[in-house]
Amino acid sequence: MIAIGAGLAVGLAGIGSGLGEKDAAAAAIGAITEDPSVFGRALIFVVLPETIVIFGLVIAIMAFFVL
Hints:
The protein has helices at residues 2-34, 39-47, 50-65. By secondary structure, it is an all-alpha fold. The protein has a single domain (2-65), classed as Up-down Bundle (F1FO ATP Synthase), CATH 1.20.20.10. It is elongated.
């Protein structure tokens, strides 16, 4: 049961992050196309949803080693 919970934590976090990242990446590419000077800020907004997957991975690791 712990393995199923850990898999769900990473999997659902990955799906949610992917859904959020697709919109952010599309907007960032449009902004960079119009003004290349916003590349740094756009990159931050694209990478920001990936932190959610890291949180899911931390929960999975905690489930394996703490519970």
